[in-house]
Design goal:
Strand content: 15-25%
Number of domains: 2
Order of helices and strands: HHEHEHEEHEHHHHEEEH
Structural class: alpha/beta
Radius of gyration: 19 Å
Number of helices: 10
Largest sheet: 8 strands, mixed
Strand order of the largest sheet: 3-2-1-4-5-7-6-8
Oligomer: single chain
CATH topology of the largest domain: Rossmann fold
Distance between the termini: 54 Å
């Protein structure tokens, strides 16, 4: 499963960001639609905030919006290429500060300095040890009344069923398919797997989700870190109805006993994306006088 070194290798090269990451917003019809239709409604109660932290911002898909909701915006990423791009992109914004980290620590930040922390479409690729490290750091860096919105994997919840998609397309075959020396039978196997995944027969193990992280494990890690998980939305991603991802909201634990988080099971997350795309396309076609 993905290690810090593998994530740096995959996401640390400028060539991999030729479109700034825009291709990952294609189901919404663009990054701006994804932000305003999907993300902003989920985080609007935390905005504006004096100091906002984004973990693993990539080439700034969400930073371009978040920086407008705060007096100080901080971006922390494992990739020097990403941070260099952000520094250049936001050079005119004196309130934007960008740092390279080791993929799990926030040592460059002052304790109790963050009002709102945000990460989306990045940490689903990291395993439980990295999630645990970031939660420990957030407990120190968040203000007592601060919040964090964290997108992470829920694939561990399907651990007993992962043998089937792996049997159809073994990991070693998938890893060796590079478009030029594709293993024999790869595309037939992948087509079968995709069809069965969309039908809800085979668990979706596409998208490189971490197998050691689930909503349940995330709550346990929050408890160890001294954080309280306030809500969790289980969502599907790209293929089929499988709730392989989770959006969790956390805050430093207060004096009162932690309550179970609010839970929403949302197998229609990608339907939301399709609806937002169609709506945006319809209205973008109206000619201006």
């Amino acid at each position: 499963m993905p290690t810090i070194e593998q994530n740096l290798k995959w996401w640390g090269k400028p060539a991999g960001w030729a479109d700034g990451g825009e291709r990952w917003s294609a189901p919404w019809g663009g990054t701006d639609v994804e932000w305003w239709a999907t993300l902003y409604p989920r985080v609007r109660q935390f905005l504006p905030a004096a100091t906002i932290l984004e973990i693993a911002p990539g080439f700034g898909r969400w930073a371009q919006f978040l920086k407008g909701f705060c007096d100080k915006f901080i971006a922390v990423d494992l990739s020097p290429a990403c941070i260099d791009n952000l520094k250049e992109q936001f050079a005119a914004d004196s309130h934007v500060h960008c740092y390279v980290n080791d993929g799990k620590s926030l040592a460059m930040l002052d304790d109790r300095s963050i009002d709102f922390a945000f990460t989306f479409d990045s940490l689903p690729h990291v395993e439980a040890d990295v999630i645990a490290a970031y939660l420990q750091e957030l407990r120190k860096k968040l203000k007592p009344n601060g919040f964090a919105f964290i997108h992470h994997s829920n694939l561990e919840a399907y651990r007993k069923s992962l043998w089937l998609p792996k049997a159809i397309v073994p990991p070693e075959i998938a890893a060796n398919s590079n478009g030029t020396a594709t293993p024999r039978g790869f595309w037939m196997r992948r087509s079968l797997k995709t069809t069965l995944t969309n039908w809800g027969v085979v668990v979706n193990n596409y998208n490189n989700r971490a197998e050691s992280v689930s909503a349940r494990i995330f709550i346990e890690l929050c408890d160890v870190a001294g954080l309280e998980c306030r809500s969790q939305e289980l969502i599907n991603w790209n293929f089929g109805p499988w709730l392989t991802d989770c959006l969790s909201v956390v805050t430093p634990r207060g004096k009162n006993s932690p309550k179970p988080p609010r839970l929403r099971r949302n197998p229609h997350f990608m339907d939301e994306a399709e609806h937002a795309r169609r709506t945006a396309e319809f209205y973008s076609g109206i000619p201006r006088a």
